[in-house]
Amino acid sequence: EDLLSSLCSQVAISLVNARLYGILDNRARELDLLFNLEKELSKAYDVNEMSKNLVKLIPKSLDSEHLILLLLDEDGRSITHHFANKINGENLNKAPFSPDEGVLQAVLKSRSIFLTNDAVSDKTIDQELMKNLKLRVKNLICAPLVNQKGVIGVLYLINKSGEHGYYTSNDKKILDSISSQIARGIENYRLKEEKMKADRLSA
User: Which of 99, 65, 100, 102 is nearest to 84 (CA)?
Assistant: First the structure.
């Protein structure tokens, strides 16, 4: 009985330690990503360069096969730029992203993160859009990029890789943090571009 009790105690301690290690590891990954994002945001010349750098960095950090970054106009209705990794550029430009359909509609309307680990059955997923992108989507997480004026962009992460192969509440938490950071970066670059244009006109 004493031996069994001792074994149970050791198992309980091991489980607690494993959980604490997981929490610390997740936090370390989040801080590392936030630091690298800030570095990319500060060194890029303009929004285009910044966006291209982000689509390389974020999927690796969050174990995702694909990333799509859409930038919107001031009204938040029209897509002005598309960026993605591992997706054909022609397919991306022709893809029928619509603010009135699918995940994009849901995110723009709620201004909150959308997550599904069953993209095949989830009716929010625009299957025709994914077909145009030549993607076989298993799971997906999508976040709005929001500033004081409204939604200025949308970030998709598609198909979680790694040990579990599905998106978690921790992924959602990290994406919430970085989407705010990216939105601030985009806004700063846009303000800088507007100032440069004003300076040229007044010269």
Answer: 65
Q: From the CB of residue 44, how many other CB atoms can be counted at a distance below 10 Å? A: 17
Give the three-class secondary structure for 35: helix
Whether residue 44 is predicted with pLDDT greater than 60 in this model: the reply is: yes
Q: Could you count the other beta carbons within 10 Å of the beta carbon of residue 139?
A: 21
**Cβ–Cβ < 8 Å for 102, 125:** yes
Residues recorded for the chain: 203
Global pTM value: 0.80
Whole-number Cα distances in Å, 11 to 20, 28, 138: 14, 25, 35
Q: How far is CA 187 from the centre of its chain?
A: 17
- Measured CA to CA in angstroms, residue 53 lies from 1, 39, 45, 56, 115 at distances of 59, 10, 11, 5, 24
